[in-house]
Design brief:
The chain is of the alpha+beta class. Helices cover about 35% and strands about 15% of the residues. The strands form five sheets. It has a six-stranded antiparallel β-sheet with strand order 3-4-9-10-14-15. A hairpin with a 4-residue loop joins strand 7 and strand 8. The radius of gyration is 22 Å and the shape is globular.
Length: about 425
Amino acid sequence: MPARGDIRSVTVPGCVDGWLALHQRFGRLPMEKVLGPARQYATEGFPASPTLVGAIPEVAGLPDAADFVVRGPLRPGRIIRRPGVARALSAIADSGRHGFYEGEFGERLLRLGEGEFVPSDLASPLADWSPALGAGALGHRLWTVPPNSQGYLTLASAWMASDLDLPADTDDPGWAHLLIEASRQAAYDRLEVLHEGADGEALLAPSRLLPRQAAIDPARAAVLPDRYREGGTIALTAVDRDRLGIALVQSNAAGFGSHLIVPGVRIFLQNRGIGFSLEPGHPAEYRPGRRPPHTLSPAAVTTPDGTLAGVLGTMSGDSQPQILLQLLARWLHGGESPGAAIAAGRWALAAGGGFETWRQRGVVRVLVEGHSPSSWPDGLAARGHEVEELAPFSHSFGHAHLIAVADDHLAAASDPRPRFGAAVGY
């Protein structure tokens, strides 16, 4: 699928419908109050962060990116105003989905699409409530969203890891090796089996996972069958005083998405359509009315009696389930605090935060973060992995967040890898 500059990589935008569905079921404040701070920032302006300044050159030449460059090259701290976004937020607060999908945004999206979208695409709510996908692992019950999400990989790899002899010492390269192999065995056929209509329960069936688990060699990286064919994502987690928890992941797919912008409103459009296949007959083939496979993998954890134990999520493309597996293993199996688990060095299968991991064949390259245990690179190489060491606290290893729920308190950590982030309690 084309990644940039092609309307066919833009799926019908469902983000606002998702917000409205969540608010209708669980919201406790009026929508205008929920959206109020964002609308104020869009109207009155917000200071450009160094992260934003570094990303803007990618789209600075696009006409409808003018909000960011109207007064010349962007500098940290310069005030940016987004009046079109403010109008869109006001329309949602005042008129719900009708104000957005059938208002200025929707009308201009149809015009931009030149036939790719039709009015009926925007007329009905796009968000669905689906039963959560669950699996027992690491002494808890893990939950995620079903296909077309790749979240099942977190559950499948954690299920396999639960019955492996994980070393208690996370500095032991055997700890990293076994989790790497669980991730590889869980995901090696992801491109073939993940699509909107996939049966999540079948993907997690013990009869399917046991042979893959049995193929994990504690001493050697597997050579998997030759059948495989940049960050624009945020994750947030929240738990309230009543122990209602949310793990939410929202994404443009890659950076500024498709580099197509709704004229006048100046809202950037995602390119989640890159998850489709152009192979005729593929279950995820690009077709009208379909949703693409995607990488967003929010997760929740409950105790065996159903009590909320925590919520977690991360950005990082194909690497999301790999990062979550490491956090779960450190937190639930190793007893580490959220802060220690989040800050610890990580591994990731190349392409490290991208969308090409499962197109590689044979022995998948393992990226190791610079502040990981010093024993990992040589220990993994000795087990047959191709290892590449990257910088400490590298952007390639995700920006994760975890809130653990204890009897009388919450324990939370925000990832130190982004330039800005926070864990806030009140």
